[in-house]
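lol ok so funny story. i was supposed to be doing the assay writeup but got distracted and ended up predicting the structure for this chain instead. priorities right. anyway since i did it might as well share w the group, maybe its usefull for someone
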Amino acid sequence: MTDQLSLVMHPTNPNIMWAVGSSVVKKTEDAGNTWTDISGSIPRSVGIGSIAYQEGTQDGIYVGGRLGSLYYRDNTMSDWVLHNTNLPNVWIRELEVLPELNKVRVATWGRGIWESPTYTNSTNFCSEPLPPTIKTELCGNTNLAIEQNTPQGYRLEWYKDGQVMAGQNSA
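and the output, tada:
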């Protein structure tokens, strides 16, 4: 796509990207070798020029354009939905999705920055597992470190002076 104004990549698959330009929305699943127009029912007069990805959804995408037009679409939907809650009737120049807050922030042409709730809430948007819980207890004269809630597939190792400590236990 040679006329893109804005581009967003899938957070875990570098072959998938979405781009906007010339009032159309396009998607590639082969690292940009081919692009498919997914503009659907978005009117070309909207002048789509910004795009953002919402983590924690089924590949949720927001695109913004003139007249406060903010559209949303994900893999469960066949077409775009107008989602301009709390937004002024001016050109959206930049988008940012805050999945941890379930908010979309837009920078407008001449009216400042505005905020809207996301169309759908993000769930499990953090790809990193939570760290294990390590509890310490005093047992006689010995200080015990007890690991709890170690994520599956991870292993804890205890080191002292660069050496694995004897008696280590791992999950």
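Residues 136 and 145 are 4 Å apart (CA to CA). The mean pLDDT is 84.
back to the writeup now i swear
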